[in-house]
């Protein structure tokens, strides 16, 4: 959002307060112009012959968001067969979808094979089962590089005790399975974590992955995952994607010359593409002062945006209704019957009951991790695209909560048990 004439606006001059008047509150709003900006940053940063950016749709899986990235030329990174089907319905070609599950049964992988998407396998047991059933279906192998990286221990997935990937020390066993089953390996993959700031972490992982890649003579692509950090606060640091692109492109091009042909360089960003594009608007229900704290209690909670409670994540909070008010310190909390805090002792323009607040960086892992806890309805979603606002998900109602519940016949409609 930009502040002009004491009011906040989204791209194209869209007024968020008008969106709230039309669609209600709380409300998720996404700006496709920011998604396009972030996508082009990655595309322009890497100078290689074949580059493929696969949007990690677990970050934000609304089918309209998927179509934004399809229209930009992206592929799709999926982690479940349900995300695979969403991608197909969004219009992605199967060959532009890579399926990277974790700890799923072979039956789900069989479903993904039926869709014709690329299969990425991250454990030896499934690799062997898959090779026996589908020796002619090319696969990608996910490697665990044993790198401790990421901004949070819950999002660091490449360390030695991680459940993700096949250890680099188990590569002899991988080759034995491939030789025994006749599997063709078309790709090598790694992902070390989220919020990685230092490009050298990627370059260190790249050396490990490229060394292993030399052991596979028929590769088509190498997937370096993602984990790029975005800024959460004013003046916050972020991954220097341009520096990473320059250094990794040089190293990748050198590898391809030694390998004897040009491979595709792949990444699977999620947060980097959609985090800054998302805004979550909430309305203040109550101002409550205790002996030491001023609480601003809002009409939402961890059921809608769990990252602050789950990851101790920081989301900048601004007062959209009165942006030029005198700053005061508030602890912003939700309406869920748990400790439910969005931000502690935040300096925000003076808040009154009824004001609308914005939680920034709400595009990634926010709505996609929401729930109906406390039987609360999930909010609506709006996409701002080329200066126009489009409703892309309706606000839930009591019918949505009851839709898949089945009334047992032992209970009468008035709630009294009967036999």
Description:
The chain has twelve helices and 20 strands. It has 419 residues and is of the alpha/beta class. It folds into two domains: 2-29 and 275-402, Lyase, Ornithine Decarboxylase, Chain A, domain 1 (Beta Barrel); 46-269, Alanine racemase (TIM Barrel). Strands 3, 13, 14, 15, 16, 17, 18, 19 and 20 form a nine-stranded mixed sheet that branches. The chain has an eight-stranded parallel beta barrel with strand order 4-5-6-7-8-10-11-12, surrounded by six helices. Strand 4 (50-56), helix 3 and strand 5 (75-78) form a beta-alpha-beta unit. Helix 2 (32-45) packs across helix 9 (241-259), helix 3 packs across helix 4 and helix 8 packs parallel to helix 9 (241-259). The longest helix has 19 residues, at 241-259. The protein is globular. The N and C termini lie far apart (59 Å). Mean pLDDT is 92; it is low at 149-159.
> What would the principal axes of the Cα set say about the shape?
globular
Spans with pLDDT under 50 lasting ≥5 residues? Answer: 149-159
Do you know the CATH topology of the largest domain?
A: TIM Barrel
Number of helices: 12
**Average pLDDT score:** 92
Largest sheet: 9 strands, mixed
**Percent helix:** 25-40%
Amino-to-carboxy terminus distance: 59 Å
Rg of Cα set: 23 Å
Structural class: alpha/beta
Number of domains: 2
Q: How many β-strand runs?
A: 20
Give the strand content.
15-25%
> Can you name the CATH architecture of the largest domain?
Alpha-Beta Barrel
| CATH superfamily caption of the largest domain | Alanine racemase
CATH class of the largest domain: Alpha Beta
């Amino acid at each position: 959002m930009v502040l002009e004439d004491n009011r906040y606006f989204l791209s194209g001059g869209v007024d968020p307060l008008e969106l709230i008047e039309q669609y209600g509150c709380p409300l998720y709003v996404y700006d496709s112009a920011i998604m396009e900006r972030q996508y082009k940053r990655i595309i322009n940063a890497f100078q290689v012959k074949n580059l493929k950016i696969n949007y990690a749709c677990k970050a934000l899986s609304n089918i309209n968001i998927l179509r934004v990235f399809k229209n930009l030329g992206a592929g799709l990174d999926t982690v479940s067969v349900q995300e695979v089907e969403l991608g197909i319905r969004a219009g992605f070609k199967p060959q532009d979808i890579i399926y990277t599950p974790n700890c799923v049964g072979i039956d789900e992988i069989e479903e993904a094979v039926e869709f014709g998407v690329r299969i990425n396998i991250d454990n030896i047991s499934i690799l062997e089962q898959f090779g026996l059933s589908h020796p002619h279906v090319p696969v990608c192998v996910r490697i665990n590089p044993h790198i401790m990286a990421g901004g949070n221990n819950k999002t660091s997935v490449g360390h030695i005790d991680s459940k993700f990937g096949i250890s680099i020390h188990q590569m002899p066993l991988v080759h034995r399975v491939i030789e025994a089953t006749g599997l063709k390996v078309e790709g090598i993959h790694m992902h070390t974590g989220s919020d990685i700031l230092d490009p050298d972490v990627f370059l260190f992982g790249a050396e490990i992955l490229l060394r292993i890649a030399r052991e596979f003579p028929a590769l088509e692509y190498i997937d370096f995952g993602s984990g790029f950090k975005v800024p959460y606060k004013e003046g916050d640091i972020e991954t220097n994607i341009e520096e990473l692109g320059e250094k990794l492109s040089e190293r990748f091009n050198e590898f391809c010359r030694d390998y004897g042909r040009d491979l595709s360089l792949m990444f699977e960003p999620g947060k980097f593409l959609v985090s800054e594009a998302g805004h979550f608007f909430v309305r203040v229900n109550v101002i409550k002062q205790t002996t030491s704290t001023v609480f601003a209690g809002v009409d939402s909670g961890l059921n809608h945006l769990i990252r602050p409670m789950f990851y101790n994540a920081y989301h900048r909070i601004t007062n959209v209704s009165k942006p030029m008010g005198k700053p005061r310190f508030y602890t912003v909390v939700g309406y869920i019957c748990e400790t439910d805090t969005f931000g502690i002792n935040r300096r925000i323009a003076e808040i009154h009951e009824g004001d609308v607040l914005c939680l920034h960086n709400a595009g990634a892992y926010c709505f996609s991790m929401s729930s109906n806890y406390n039987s609360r309805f999930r909010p609506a979603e709006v996409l701002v695209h080329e200066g126009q606002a489009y409703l892309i998900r309706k606000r839930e109602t009591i019918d949505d909560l009851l839709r898949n519940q089945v009334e047992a016949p032992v209970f009468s409609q008035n709630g009294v048990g009967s036999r």
